[in-house]
Specification:
This protein is of the alpha+beta class and about 170 residues long. Helices cover about 35% and strands about 25% of the residues.
Length: about 170
């Protein structure tokens, strides 16, 4: 702990644990950690707040995990998912969920790898939810037969063919 000049104490151990958690999650999720920033005390009614962001974008999905920590408050995880053309819109057009963990960041860090698996699970659910109501977009897609055949040839070992049994 150290003083910031205003007579308030900044928990440097907590800041280091938060940075460690964000880095560990990013590493486990296979992406680079996004921005991390802190709001340090600046007057009698201010507070410490740390924010870390991790972006996971693939397969037409834009996903953002935001971690927010304040002294004496639960760790907040905000999951936001957008899909397709919604990525250029506001987060309200996608699916957003907030989780409040009652444990401190320091208590969560040893279980960071498990938390990363839970993050993947939550985003998997959100990926399915964000596409609800867009089935009509899929019916309007026109893919030439030549492109389908080329894809099937390139993925031949991965494609299974089902031929129904005849009753005779």
């Amino acid at each position: 702990m150290t003083f910031d000049g205003t007579g308030k104490t900044i928990d440097l151990q907590g800041v280091a644990a938060f940075a460690s958690l964000v880095e560990l999650l990013a590493q486990e999720l296979g992406v680079a950690a996004g921005r991390m920033q802190g709001q340090l005390p600046n007057g009698p009614d201010s507070f410490n707040q740390l924010l870390g962001e991790i972006d996971l974008n693939s397969q037409g999905f834009s996903r953002k995990l935001s971690l927010m920590a304040k002294p004496g408050a639960p760790l907040t995880l905000r999951f936001a998912t957008k899909w397709g053309t919604e990525r250029n819109a506001n987060v309200a057009g996608g699916v957003t969920a907030d989780y409040f963990l009652s444990a401190t960041v320091e208590q969560i860090v040893p279980q960071g790898r498990a938390l990363a698996r839970y993050v993947e699970d939550i985003f998997a659910v959100q990926d399915r939810m964000v596409t609800l109501g867009y089935g009509n977009k899929l019916t309007g897609i026109n893919v030439p037969a030549s492109q389908l055949e080329a894809f099937e040839r390139s993925e031949e070992s991965m494609i299974s063919t089902h031929i129904p049994k005849s009753d005779s």
